[in-house]
Automatic annotation (TrEMBL):
Top-rank taxon: Bacteria
PROSITE patterns: EAL, GGDEF
Residue ranges the record marks as coiled coil: none
UniProt-listed Pfam families: EAL, GGDEF
Domain EAL, first and last residues per copy: 305-556
GO molecular function terms listed in the Swiss-Prot or TrEMBL record: cyclic-guanylate-specific phosphodiesterase activity
InterPro entries attached to this UniProt entry: Cyclic-di-GMP_PDE-like, EAL_dom, EAL_sf, GGDEF_dom, Nucleotide_cyclase, PAS-like_dom_sf, Rev_trsase/Diguanyl_cyclase
Listed name of the protein: Diguanylate cyclase (GGDEF)-like protein
Domain GGDEF: 165-296
Length: 567
């Protein structure tokens, strides 16, 4: 970029750097590389720490070191100084991993040997920002208001350790709070504090919570895959829906929750908040659980669905399907088993949730081909798993379309024969509600059982025909639906239902898996009830194959570990 009016500097790089570091702790000397990138030439030691730079990063460009959205953010500031041909000043969060620190920077462009450079000088203004923040918090709950929340979340997302991470916004409206405000202010104040405390339980150290209006809250949560975001929404719903006890009386409120995913390319938080707000408004019109998730099939337009239907045909060929594995713990044997879970990494939409693409695959019968690939891949992975844990069992979800296929049993027999896998180490899970559409289920179950596969009734207890299936079908295990497990520590009826199902299973010589284990209290109750196996986020989220192998190798998941955690 040539400009005859540019200021020229009479010092060389070393002299210039020495002058500035004698006056400022945080100094960057950058070289402009057209069209819009900057190279680190010299950096003070404090600046290295704040920007998480290593010695071998010096000489690299901003775009080579940082993720695209952070690089774009930094380059914009430096380019503004070059384009303006004069100093610019801006505030930003300093790139600290564990501590919030803020800086005010001055960028000064100059020319040396017909090359364009920029000197960046930064001073620590954390104390000033902290004073400003004190004026931006709700006096009742102590939570930040909307503007402060957006600013803090924006700074967090630009930290180097969160590059490319996935974040959801949960916009929560408390529906009965407006009435309480007009009838009893003391109850309203106490209730707001209790609601804020319950919401804080869902926060990890990096997550943020805001009270954005009289009866509305927003949570910014880092997630690792779409299903985790869905589970968090339902956990928030259940937590708020549970009765609150004030000094005067017990009260129940219900939330409406809208969820939006922040675009990692743009990090446009206000737009995502607007999406979450609109989703919350749509949630209010729902009769049942008032939650609207990103790309909820009830609300999204047809263009996404049409795109997914079109691309699904090529997903397997393009290698876009992935298998994740969620650990399950055999309580009595203290042995680790896993469940295989399918993921689709779409080229435009990223990870598409299974509840969105599996129904499409079932409608166009592609699930037969995809399901066969899943079984083949599981068998391959099992060989590696067995080297680390010879007793491991792997569960595979089977679609009713697969079970209805006359060739299904023969196909799966060929796969295990080719891969030399013991069918007794494979559990085939079928959701009991799907059995209504499988006239030949009894015959298929018998054939699979004769081969040696272990058959599991998934989501047990959600159908009126549950007991009839136990009588008619050759199953070895039932999996209690997580809706009974998640609330049984404070819903006596759920606890009684779980106890009854486990006793029934024992009398019929069936094993029992409890899914939806989210708390240590769940484990304590299920152990006393003599449940065989537990599964849920308290143990572990679903993991890619390399991570699950690492856990198997280190034998990290065991009851002993959690007993130590709680003691």
């Amino acid at each position: 970029m040539k400009n005859p009016n540019k200021h020229h500097m009479l010092f060389n790089e070393d002299e210039l750097f020495h002058i500035f570091t004698s006056l400022f702790d945080i100094v960057y000397l950058m070289k402009f590389l057209p069209p819009k990138d900057f190279q680190y030439i010299r950096v003070s030691e404090n600046a290295k720490k704040l920007a998480s730079l290593k010695d071998n990063d010096i000489g690299k460009t901003i775009s080579q070191i940082y993720h695209s959205h952070i690089a774009g953010h930094l380059n914009e500031h430096y380019y503004e100084a070059v384009e303006k041909n004069g100093p610019i000043t801006f505030r930003d969060r300093l790139n600290m991993d564990n501590e919030e620190k803020y800086g005010e920077s001055v960028l000064i462009p100059f020319q040396y040997n017909e090359e364009t450079y920029v000197v960046g000088l930064t001073r620590d203004i954390t104390h000033v920002v902290n004073l400003e923040k004190k004026q931006a918090y709700d006096p009742i709950t102590g939570l930040p208001f909307s503007d402060n929340f957006i600013s803090a979340l924006n700074s967090t997302l630009k930290l180097k350790k969160y590059e490319g991470s996935m974040w959801n916004l949960y916009y929560i409206s408390i529906n009965q709070l407006s009435f309480i405000q007009y009838t009893n202010r003391n109850v309203e104040t106490e209730l707001l504090k209790q609601i804020a405390n319950r919401l804080k339980r869902f926060l990890k150290s990096e997550d943020l919570l805001s009270r954005v209006s009289s009866n509305e809250f927003v949570i910014g949560v880092q997630i690792h895959y779409p299903e985790e975001g869905k589970d968090i929404a339902h956990q928030i719903y259940e937590a708020i829906n549970h009765p609150f006890q004030t000094e005067e009386f017990e009260t129940i409120v219900t939330p409406s929750i809208g969820v939006a995913t922040i675009n990692p390319a743009t990090l446009d938080i206000p737009s995502s908040m607007a999406e979450a707000f609109q989703a919350m408004l749509r949630a209010k019109s729902k009769v049942d659980t008032q939650i609207v998730l990103p790309n909820d099939t009830d609300w999204s337009d047809n263009s996404r669905k049409n795109t997914l239907e079109r691309d699904l045909s090529y997903a397997l060929q393009k290698g876009q399907f992935l298998l994740y594995y969620q650990p399950k713990l055999d309580i009595r044997e203290n042995n680790l088993n896993v469940e295989a879970l399918l993921r689709w990494n779409h080229q435009n939409f990223g990870l598409v949730p299974p509840n969105e693409f599996i129904p499409l695959a079932e409608q166009n019968q592609l699930i037969k081909i995809i399901g066969k690939w899943v079984i083949q891949q599981v068998c391959k992975d099992m060989k590696a798993f067995k080297k680390l844990n010879p007793n491991i069992k792997v569960a595979i979800n089977i679609s009713p379309v697969q079970l209805n296929d006359a060739n299904f049993v023969e196909d799966i027999k060929k796969i295990i024969a080719k891969e030399k896998v013991d069918p007794g180490k494979i559990e085939l899970e079928i959701t009991e509600s799907d059995l209504l559409h499988i006239p030949s289920a009894q015959k298929q179950f018998e054939l699979l059982s004769n081969v040696g596969f272990r058959l599991v009734l998934d989501d047990f207890g959600t159908s009126y025909s549950s007991l009839n299936y136990l009588k008619e079908l050759s199953v070895q295990k039932i999996k209690i639906d997580k809706s009974f497990i998640m609330n049984m520590d404070y819903h006596q009826k759920d606890q009684q239902i779980v106890q009854m199902i486990i006793k029934l299973a024992k009398n019929l010589d069936l094993e029992v898996t409890a899914e939806g284990v989210e708390k240590w209290k769940h484990i304590e109750l299920l152990t006393k009830m003599d449940c065989n196996e537990i599964q849920g986020y308290y143990l572990s989220k679903p993991l890619p194959v390399l991570e699950i192998m690492k856990k198997l190798e280190e034998n990290k998941i065991s009851l002993t570990e959690y007993e130590k955690r709680m003691s």
